[in-house]
Give the backbone structure.
Amino acid sequence: MQGVRVVEFTHLVMGPVCGLALADLGADVIRVEPLEGDRTRQYQGAGAGFYPLFNRNKRSIALDLHHIDGARIARDLCKEADVVVENFKPDTMHKYGLDYASLSPENPKLIYASCKGFLPGPYEKRTALDEVVQMMGGLAYMTGRPGDPLRAGASVNDIMGGMFAAMGVLSAIIQRRTTGRGFEVQSGLFENNVFLVAQHMMQFAVTGTPAAPLPMRDTPWTVYDVFTVANGEQIFLGAVSDPQWVKFCKALGFDDLLEDERYLALSQRLEQRDALLEILKQRLSTRDAEEISILMDRSGLPYAPIRRPDELLDDVHLNASGGLVSQLVLDGESKVVKTALLPLTLASKRLGLRRNPPRIGQHTNEVLKELGLGDQEIARLKENSACTW
Protein backbone atom coordinates (compact mmCIF):
# COMPACT_ATOMS: atom_id res chain seq x y z
CA MET A 1 0.00 0.00 0.00
CA GLN A 2 2.92 2.35 -0.49
CA GLY A 3 1.73 5.67 -1.87
CA VAL A 4 -1.66 5.43 -0.12
CA ARG A 5 -2.27 8.22 2.41
CA VAL A 6 -4.68 7.60 5.28
CA VAL A 7 -5.91 10.31 7.66
CA GLU A 8 -7.14 8.79 10.92
CA PHE A 9 -9.55 10.49 13.34
CA THR A 10 -9.97 7.81 15.97
CA HIS A 11 -9.87 6.90 19.65
CA LEU A 12 -9.82 3.78 21.84
CA VAL A 13 -9.49 0.52 19.85
CA MET A 14 -11.75 -0.11 16.84
CA GLY A 15 -10.67 2.85 14.70
CA PRO A 16 -6.97 2.63 15.62
CA VAL A 17 -6.99 -1.09 14.68
CA CYS A 18 -8.25 -0.21 11.19
CA GLY A 19 -5.47 2.35 10.85
CA LEU A 20 -2.94 -0.12 12.25
CA ALA A 21 -3.82 -2.73 9.64
CA LEU A 22 -3.45 -0.19 6.82
CA ALA A 23 -0.21 1.17 8.30
CA ASP A 24 1.30 -2.30 8.66
CA LEU A 25 0.38 -2.97 5.03
CA GLY A 26 2.49 0.03 4.03
CA ALA A 27 0.11 3.02 3.94
CA ASP A 28 1.19 6.44 5.23
CA VAL A 29 -1.22 6.77 8.17
CA ILE A 30 -1.47 10.22 9.77
CA ARG A 31 -3.13 10.02 13.17
CA VAL A 32 -4.96 13.28 14.01
CA GLU A 33 -4.99 13.69 17.80
CA PRO A 34 -6.32 16.43 20.09
CA LEU A 35 -3.71 18.77 21.54
CA GLU A 36 -3.57 16.73 24.74
CA GLY A 37 -3.24 13.50 22.76
CA ASP A 38 -5.41 10.41 22.56
CA ARG A 39 -6.66 9.62 26.05
CA THR A 40 -5.54 5.99 25.73
CA ARG A 41 -1.98 7.33 26.10
CA GLN A 42 -2.84 7.83 29.77
CA TYR A 43 -4.61 4.54 30.37
CA GLN A 44 -3.32 2.25 33.10
CA GLY A 45 -4.08 -1.32 34.13
CA ALA A 46 -5.97 -3.29 31.49
CA GLY A 47 -5.78 -0.35 29.08
CA ALA A 48 -2.03 0.26 29.39
CA GLY A 49 -1.29 -1.62 26.17
CA PHE A 50 -3.85 0.13 23.95
CA TYR A 51 -1.80 3.02 22.60
CA PRO A 52 1.59 1.32 22.12
CA LEU A 53 0.00 -1.72 20.46
CA PHE A 54 -2.45 -0.10 18.04
CA ASN A 55 -0.43 2.91 16.88
CA ARG A 56 2.86 1.66 15.46
CA ASN A 57 3.80 2.63 11.90
CA LYS A 58 1.78 5.87 12.13
CA ARG A 59 2.58 9.57 12.19
CA SER A 60 0.92 11.91 14.71
CA ILE A 61 -0.36 15.44 14.14
CA ALA A 62 -2.00 17.30 17.04
CA LEU A 63 -4.85 19.64 16.04
CA ASP A 64 -7.61 21.46 17.90
CA LEU A 65 -10.64 20.68 15.75
CA HIS A 66 -12.68 23.22 17.75
CA HIS A 67 -10.35 25.94 16.45
CA ILE A 68 -11.27 27.29 13.01
CA ASP A 69 -7.69 26.87 11.77
CA GLY A 70 -7.35 23.39 13.26
CA ALA A 71 -10.51 22.20 11.52
CA ARG A 72 -9.38 23.83 8.26
CA ILE A 73 -6.04 22.03 8.36
CA ALA A 74 -7.83 18.74 9.01
CA ARG A 75 -10.06 19.33 5.96
CA ASP A 76 -7.01 20.22 3.86
CA LEU A 77 -5.41 16.94 4.92
CA CYS A 78 -8.50 15.07 3.81
CA LYS A 79 -8.49 16.80 0.40
CA GLU A 80 -5.15 15.11 -0.30
CA ALA A 81 -6.01 11.78 1.31
CA ASP A 82 -6.86 8.46 -0.25
CA VAL A 83 -8.62 7.22 2.88
CA VAL A 84 -10.17 8.75 6.00
CA VAL A 85 -10.83 6.54 9.03
CA GLU A 86 -13.02 7.64 11.96
CA ASN A 87 -14.84 6.01 14.86
CA PHE A 88 -16.68 8.79 16.67
CA LYS A 89 -20.36 9.05 17.53
CA PRO A 90 -22.80 9.76 14.69
CA ASP A 91 -22.75 13.43 13.57
CA THR A 92 -19.48 14.23 15.38
CA MET A 93 -17.45 14.53 12.18
CA HIS A 94 -20.21 16.57 10.51
CA LYS A 95 -19.72 19.35 13.08
CA TYR A 96 -16.22 19.96 11.69
CA GLY A 97 -17.04 19.45 8.02
CA LEU A 98 -15.14 16.17 8.16
CA ASP A 99 -17.96 13.76 7.30
CA TYR A 100 -18.07 11.95 3.97
CA ALA A 101 -20.82 14.16 2.53
CA SER A 102 -18.74 17.29 3.22
CA LEU A 103 -15.41 15.92 1.98
CA SER A 104 -16.33 13.86 -1.08
CA PRO A 105 -17.34 16.74 -3.41
CA GLU A 106 -13.79 18.16 -3.24
CA ASN A 107 -12.14 14.73 -3.16
CA PRO A 108 -14.31 12.32 -5.18
CA LYS A 109 -11.64 9.58 -4.98
CA LEU A 110 -11.84 9.60 -1.16
CA ILE A 111 -12.59 6.32 0.62
CA TYR A 112 -14.22 7.04 3.96
CA ALA A 113 -14.20 4.31 6.62
CA SER A 114 -16.54 4.76 9.58
CA CYS A 115 -16.13 2.34 12.48
CA LYS A 116 -19.41 2.53 14.36
CA GLY A 117 -21.14 0.86 17.27
CA PHE A 118 -24.09 -0.08 15.07
CA LEU A 119 -24.68 0.06 11.34
CA PRO A 120 -27.60 2.26 10.19
CA GLY A 121 -30.88 1.20 11.78
CA PRO A 122 -32.89 1.56 15.01
CA TYR A 123 -29.79 1.17 17.23
CA GLU A 124 -27.43 3.50 15.37
CA LYS A 125 -27.60 6.34 17.92
CA ARG A 126 -26.81 4.08 20.87
CA THR A 127 -23.46 4.22 22.64
CA ALA A 128 -21.63 0.96 22.11
CA LEU A 129 -18.69 -0.70 23.81
CA ASP A 130 -17.23 -4.15 23.28
CA GLU A 131 -18.89 -5.16 26.56
CA VAL A 132 -22.26 -3.78 25.44
CA VAL A 133 -22.41 -5.67 22.16
CA GLN A 134 -21.10 -8.88 23.72
CA MET A 135 -23.98 -8.78 26.20
CA MET A 136 -26.73 -7.89 23.74
CA GLY A 137 -25.25 -9.95 20.90
CA GLY A 138 -25.18 -13.37 22.56
CA LEU A 139 -21.41 -13.76 22.93
CA ALA A 140 -21.37 -13.22 26.70
CA TYR A 141 -24.24 -15.72 27.03
CA MET A 142 -22.31 -18.32 25.03
CA THR A 143 -19.08 -17.75 26.98
CA GLY A 144 -20.41 -17.84 30.54
CA ARG A 145 -22.40 -20.35 32.52
CA PRO A 146 -26.22 -20.18 32.56
CA GLY A 147 -27.25 -17.09 34.48
CA ASP A 148 -23.68 -15.79 34.54
CA PRO A 149 -22.90 -14.06 31.21
CA LEU A 150 -19.18 -13.48 30.77
CA ARG A 151 -17.45 -11.20 28.29
CA ALA A 152 -14.57 -12.60 26.29
CA GLY A 153 -11.17 -11.86 27.79
CA ALA A 154 -10.01 -9.58 24.96
CA SER A 155 -11.44 -6.73 22.86
CA VAL A 156 -12.59 -9.20 20.23
CA ASN A 157 -15.26 -7.03 18.59
CA ASP A 158 -13.21 -3.84 18.59
CA ILE A 159 -10.26 -5.62 17.00
CA MET A 160 -12.23 -7.64 14.45
CA GLY A 161 -14.48 -4.67 13.68
CA GLY A 162 -11.39 -2.62 12.83
CA MET A 163 -10.08 -5.43 10.65
CA PHE A 164 -13.39 -5.66 8.76
CA ALA A 165 -13.22 -1.90 8.18
CA ALA A 166 -9.71 -2.30 6.75
CA MET A 167 -11.02 -5.11 4.53
CA GLY A 168 -13.70 -2.75 3.24
CA VAL A 169 -11.07 -0.08 2.55
CA LEU A 170 -8.96 -2.52 0.54
CA SER A 171 -12.03 -3.54 -1.46
CA ALA A 172 -12.85 0.11 -2.14
CA ILE A 173 -9.29 0.80 -3.32
CA ILE A 174 -9.57 -2.04 -5.82
CA GLN A 175 -12.94 -0.79 -7.10
CA ARG A 176 -11.63 2.78 -7.36
CA ARG A 177 -9.12 1.61 -9.95
CA THR A 178 -12.08 0.94 -12.25
CA THR A 179 -14.45 3.78 -11.34
CA GLY A 180 -12.01 6.50 -10.31
CA ARG A 181 -14.26 7.25 -7.34
CA GLY A 182 -14.26 6.35 -3.69
CA PHE A 183 -17.19 5.61 -1.41
CA GLU A 184 -18.08 5.23 2.25
CA VAL A 185 -17.29 2.01 4.11
CA GLN A 186 -18.96 1.24 7.44
CA SER A 187 -18.11 -1.42 9.99
CA GLY A 188 -20.34 -2.12 13.00
CA LEU A 189 -19.28 -3.36 16.43
CA PHE A 190 -22.66 -5.00 17.09
CA GLU A 191 -22.83 -6.56 13.64
CA ASN A 192 -19.33 -7.93 14.09
CA ASN A 193 -20.46 -9.63 17.29
CA VAL A 194 -23.49 -11.07 15.49
CA PHE A 195 -21.16 -12.55 12.88
CA LEU A 196 -19.13 -14.18 15.68
CA VAL A 197 -22.19 -15.97 17.03
CA ALA A 198 -23.79 -16.60 13.63
CA GLN A 199 -22.87 -20.29 13.79
CA HIS A 200 -25.05 -20.61 16.89
CA MET A 201 -27.86 -18.66 15.23
CA MET A 202 -27.63 -21.02 12.27
CA GLN A 203 -27.63 -24.03 14.60
CA PHE A 204 -31.02 -22.94 15.94
CA ALA A 205 -32.33 -22.11 12.47
CA VAL A 206 -31.39 -25.58 11.23
CA THR A 207 -32.23 -27.71 14.28
CA GLY A 208 -34.77 -25.66 16.23
CA THR A 209 -32.67 -26.14 19.37
CA PRO A 210 -30.99 -23.07 20.94
CA ALA A 211 -27.24 -23.39 21.39
CA ALA A 212 -26.17 -23.98 24.98
CA PRO A 213 -23.42 -21.85 26.58
CA LEU A 214 -19.98 -23.33 26.02
CA PRO A 215 -19.50 -24.60 29.63
CA MET A 216 -22.77 -26.55 29.37
CA ARG A 217 -22.58 -27.63 25.74
CA ASP A 218 -23.09 -31.24 24.72
CA THR A 219 -19.83 -32.09 23.01
CA PRO A 220 -19.75 -34.68 20.20
CA TRP A 221 -16.35 -35.89 21.44
CA THR A 222 -15.27 -37.78 24.54
CA VAL A 223 -11.80 -36.34 25.06
CA TYR A 224 -12.11 -32.61 24.47
CA ASP A 225 -11.39 -31.02 27.80
CA VAL A 226 -8.96 -29.28 30.14
CA PHE A 227 -7.12 -31.56 32.59
CA THR A 228 -5.31 -30.54 35.77
CA VAL A 229 -2.01 -32.40 35.93
CA ALA A 230 1.09 -32.46 38.18
CA ASN A 231 2.02 -29.30 40.09
CA GLY A 232 -1.40 -27.80 39.37
CA GLU A 233 -0.63 -27.18 35.72
CA GLN A 234 -3.45 -27.44 33.20
CA ILE A 235 -3.53 -28.74 29.64
CA PHE A 236 -6.22 -29.12 26.99
CA LEU A 237 -6.32 -32.52 25.30
CA GLY A 238 -8.40 -33.69 22.38
CA ALA A 239 -9.17 -37.02 20.73
CA VAL A 240 -12.13 -36.46 18.45
CA SER A 241 -12.33 -39.65 16.39
CA ASP A 242 -11.85 -43.41 16.80
CA PRO A 243 -8.35 -43.34 15.22
CA GLN A 244 -7.36 -40.44 17.49
CA TRP A 245 -8.68 -42.34 20.54
CA VAL A 246 -6.40 -45.23 19.66
CA LYS A 247 -3.40 -42.89 19.29
CA PHE A 248 -4.30 -41.13 22.53
CA CYS A 249 -4.40 -44.33 24.58
CA LYS A 250 -1.22 -45.74 23.04
CA ALA A 251 0.67 -42.49 23.52
CA LEU A 252 -0.23 -42.28 27.21
CA GLY A 253 0.04 -46.00 27.95
CA PHE A 254 -3.69 -46.57 28.44
CA ASP A 255 -3.82 -49.82 26.47
CA ASP A 256 -6.29 -51.30 28.94
CA LEU A 257 -8.87 -48.70 27.88
CA LEU A 258 -8.49 -49.85 24.26
CA GLU A 259 -9.40 -53.37 25.35
CA ASP A 260 -12.47 -52.28 27.29
CA GLU A 261 -15.57 -53.02 25.22
CA ARG A 262 -17.40 -50.03 26.71
CA TYR A 263 -15.02 -47.64 24.92
CA LEU A 264 -14.56 -49.27 21.52
CA ALA A 265 -16.59 -46.80 19.45
CA LEU A 266 -17.13 -43.04 19.76
CA SER A 267 -20.86 -43.51 20.37
CA GLN A 268 -20.08 -45.89 23.25
CA ARG A 269 -17.52 -43.54 24.76
CA LEU A 270 -20.05 -40.70 24.65
CA GLU A 271 -22.50 -42.81 26.63
CA GLN A 272 -19.79 -43.35 29.23
CA ARG A 273 -18.25 -39.88 28.92
CA ASP A 274 -18.59 -38.69 32.52
CA ALA A 275 -17.18 -41.91 33.99
CA LEU A 276 -14.42 -42.09 31.38
CA LEU A 277 -13.37 -38.49 32.01
CA GLU A 278 -13.05 -39.22 35.73
CA ILE A 279 -10.73 -42.12 34.94
CA LEU A 280 -8.63 -39.96 32.64
CA LYS A 281 -8.47 -37.10 35.14
CA GLN A 282 -7.23 -39.41 37.87
CA ARG A 283 -4.59 -41.01 35.66
CA LEU A 284 -3.36 -37.70 34.27
CA SER A 285 -3.30 -35.86 37.60
CA THR A 286 0.22 -37.08 38.40
CA ARG A 287 1.64 -36.70 34.91
CA ASP A 288 3.84 -33.77 33.91
CA ALA A 289 2.36 -31.26 31.44
CA GLU A 290 5.58 -31.10 29.41
CA GLU A 291 5.78 -34.88 29.19
CA ILE A 292 2.15 -35.08 28.04
CA SER A 293 2.78 -32.34 25.47
CA ILE A 294 5.70 -34.29 24.00
CA LEU A 295 3.67 -37.48 23.76
CA MET A 296 0.69 -35.72 22.16
CA ASP A 297 2.93 -33.90 19.71
CA ARG A 298 4.65 -37.09 18.62
CA SER A 299 1.25 -38.68 17.98
CA GLY A 300 -0.08 -35.70 16.03
CA LEU A 301 -2.90 -35.15 18.50
CA PRO A 302 -4.40 -31.77 19.47
CA TYR A 303 -3.17 -30.38 22.79
CA ALA A 304 -2.50 -27.02 24.40
CA PRO A 305 -0.92 -26.12 27.73
CA ILE A 306 -2.97 -23.35 29.38
CA ARG A 307 -0.99 -20.11 29.26
CA ARG A 308 -1.33 -16.51 30.36
CA PRO A 309 -0.93 -13.81 27.68
CA ASP A 310 2.33 -12.58 29.25
CA GLU A 311 3.86 -16.05 28.80
CA LEU A 312 3.46 -15.70 25.02
CA LEU A 313 6.25 -13.11 24.98
CA ASP A 314 8.66 -16.04 25.42
CA ASP A 315 6.85 -18.41 23.06
CA VAL A 316 9.37 -20.39 20.99
CA HIS A 317 7.28 -20.39 17.83
CA LEU A 318 6.36 -16.68 17.94
CA ASN A 319 9.96 -15.64 18.51
CA ALA A 320 11.44 -17.99 15.91
CA SER A 321 8.85 -17.23 13.22
CA GLY A 322 8.98 -13.45 13.53
CA GLY A 323 5.54 -13.10 15.08
CA LEU A 324 6.90 -10.70 17.70
CA VAL A 325 8.94 -7.57 17.10
CA SER A 326 10.73 -5.22 19.51
CA GLN A 327 9.53 -1.62 19.61
CA LEU A 328 9.75 1.43 21.83
CA VAL A 329 6.65 2.14 23.90
CA LEU A 330 6.77 5.63 22.34
CA ASP A 331 9.25 6.98 19.83
CA GLY A 332 12.12 8.59 21.71
CA GLU A 333 11.56 6.63 24.92
CA SER A 334 14.07 4.09 26.14
CA LYS A 335 11.67 1.31 27.13
CA VAL A 336 11.77 -1.50 24.58
CA VAL A 337 8.97 -4.07 24.55
CA LYS A 338 7.87 -6.94 22.34
CA THR A 339 4.67 -6.56 20.35
CA ALA A 340 2.58 -8.93 18.25
CA LEU A 341 2.41 -8.41 14.49
CA LEU A 342 -0.56 -8.94 12.20
CA PRO A 343 -1.20 -12.69 11.79
CA LEU A 344 -0.26 -12.99 8.14
CA THR A 345 2.66 -13.11 5.73
CA LEU A 346 3.01 -11.43 2.33
CA ALA A 347 5.51 -13.03 -0.03
CA SER A 348 6.57 -15.23 2.89
CA LYS A 349 7.43 -12.20 5.04
CA ARG A 350 5.83 -10.84 8.21
CA LEU A 351 4.77 -7.19 8.18
CA GLY A 352 7.27 -5.48 10.43
CA LEU A 353 7.90 -2.26 12.27
CA ARG A 354 8.69 0.94 10.35
CA ARG A 355 7.80 3.48 13.03
CA ASN A 356 7.47 3.28 16.79
CA PRO A 357 4.20 4.67 18.20
CA PRO A 358 4.58 8.45 17.90
CA ARG A 359 4.70 11.11 20.58
CA ILE A 360 1.79 13.57 20.65
CA GLY A 361 2.04 15.74 17.55
CA GLN A 362 5.48 14.38 16.72
CA HIS A 363 4.92 14.90 12.99
CA THR A 364 2.79 18.07 13.05
CA ASN A 365 5.50 20.30 11.60
CA GLU A 366 6.43 17.70 9.00
CA VAL A 367 2.86 17.13 7.81
CA LEU A 368 2.02 20.85 7.69
CA LYS A 369 5.03 21.46 5.46
CA GLU A 370 3.84 18.65 3.20
CA LEU A 371 0.58 20.62 2.87
CA GLY A 372 2.62 23.57 1.63
CA LEU A 373 2.56 25.73 4.77
CA GLY A 374 5.58 27.94 5.44
CA ASP A 375 7.43 28.41 8.70
CA GLN A 376 5.65 31.69 9.52
CA GLU A 377 2.19 30.21 9.00
CA ILE A 378 3.10 27.16 11.07
CA ALA A 379 4.41 29.40 13.87
CA ARG A 380 1.17 31.41 13.78
CA LEU A 381 -0.93 28.27 14.06
CA LYS A 382 1.09 27.09 17.02
CA GLU A 383 0.86 30.51 18.71
CA ASN A 384 -2.95 30.47 18.21
CA SER A 385 -3.10 26.97 19.77
CA ALA A 386 -4.59 25.45 16.62
CA CYS A 387 -1.87 22.81 16.66
CA THR A 388 1.12 21.65 18.64
CA TRP A 389 4.20 19.47 18.37
